[in-house]
Amino acid sequence: MSENYVAPAQQRYLRACMVCSIVMTYARFRDEGCPNCEEFLHLQGSPDQIDSCTSQVFEGLITLADPSRSWVAKWQRLDGYVRGVYATKVSGQLPDDVRTSIEEEYRTTYIPRDGSATEAD
């Protein structure tokens, strides 16, 4: 069975990363961290970080088998991420300290995935 399979009884534990929007179970975020954002979110083994940097409230699901070749991945700003299941919209905002850390230390611009901000063309 696929590594991304989630049994119906476990779907209530799904969460989406507020930075990259990958959807995984709480336990998987705890055990593995975010495969795209672990470098700066440090979710692995940290329930507090998981609660503040992921959300249970998200809309739509996209399954990406090859993000580098997918037009949907480019449209959703997911190209360059690992293959997996992603939300189209994630409700919530990162805490200010995490946001500042991402933008200052890692020189990455945080664009909320809840539709509150749009990317400048």
Automatic annotation (TrEMBL):
PANTHER family: SUPPRESSOR OF TY 4, TRANSCRIPTION ELONGATION FACTOR SPT4. It comes from the Eukaryota. GO terms for molecular function: RNA polymerase II complex binding; zinc ion binding. Belongs to the SPT4 family. It is found in: Chromosome, Centromere; Nucleus. One of its GO terms (cellular component) is chromosome, centromeric region. The keyword Transcription applies. The keyword Cell wall biogenesis/degradation does not apply. Keywords: Centromere, Nucleus, Transcription. Gene3D superfamilies: 3.30.40.210. The SPT4-SPT5 complex mediates both activation and inhibition of transcription elongation, and plays a role in pre-mRNA processing. This complex seems to be important for the stability of the RNA polymerase II elongation machinery on the chromatin template but not for the inherent ability of this machinery to translocate down the gene. Its main location: nucleus. GO terms for biological process: regulation of DNA-templated transcription; transcription elongation-coupled chromatin remodeling. Residues 14-91 form the Spt4/RpoE2 zinc finger domain. This is Transcription elongation factor SPT4.
